[in-house]
Amino acid sequence: MRRLHPSVLFVVFGAACASAGSGSETSVSQATTSMIVASSAMNAMSVNTTNEYTAIATALAVSPDSAFQVLSRAYAMLEIPVAPIATKRAIGNDEIKIRRRIAGMPMQNVVDCGDKMGLPNAETWDIHMNLLSYIQPAPNGGSQLLTRIQALGNPVDLSNRDLSPCSSKGELEKKISDLVLKLIAGK
């Protein structure tokens, strides 16, 4: 089975994460849909969709602007690589290519890409990750932090071919949320 380059797939991911316009509130779907395109030996194309990428939400007792400042600080402290994002109050990177560790965590604790002979693939594969955290105003005041990870992986020797979907284990999202809560509490 052959899959497209991660940047092509991330275009599909990004389509579900569009901004409402310049200067407006962030409007990113909490559950995004990805498209996985595969071709068989007879070159027939198969398109599958999945809704497995869901943003994990955390309530924050500060204004959206204050929450975003703290979130930006948390990303810097965790040394998570960021790229410019046009969406207001959002931070992340739509194409992180990483191996073994992110934010001080072993990759096998961050994503599940299956295993081979008892060893988690996430530990040895190249991981192509789309990581996004964003702040939205909460309906009852304060704000809400949402973080979602979308990832694909492949063995190092296959050089960006045969990318397989990986699911988030929720640990990196939790680490980001916990640090933001800790910074807000002043601890």
Report what the structure shows.
By secondary structure, the protein is α+β, with helices and mostly antiparallel strands. It has one domain: Alpha-D-Glucose-1,6-Bisphosphate, Chain A, domain 4. The chain has five helices and 13 strands. Strands 4, 5, 8, 11, 12 and 13 form a six-stranded antiparallel beta sheet that branches. It has a three-stranded antiparallel beta sheet with strand order 1-2-3. A hairpin with a 5-residue loop joins strand 11 and strand 12. The longest helix is centred in the C-terminal third of the chain and has 15 residues. The chain starts with a strand and ends with a helix. The N terminus is likely disordered.
CATH class category: Alpha Beta
Number of strands: 13
The residue ranges in which pLDDT falls below 50 over 5 or more consecutive positions are 1-51
Q: What percentage of amino acids are in beta strands?
A: 35-45%
Shape: elongated
**Percentage of residues in helical conformation:** 25-40%
Query: Biggest β-sheet, characterized?
Result: 6 strands, antiparallel
> Gap between N and C termini, in Å?
49 Å
CATH architecture: 2-Layer Sandwich
Mean pLDDT: 76
Count the helices. How many? 5
Output the helix-strand order.
EHEEEHEEEHEEEHEEEH
Integer count of domains: 1
Structural class given helices, strands, pairing?
A: alpha+beta
CATH fold node name:
Alpha-D-Glucose-1,6-Bisphosphate, Chain A, domain 4
Overall radius of gyration: 17 Å
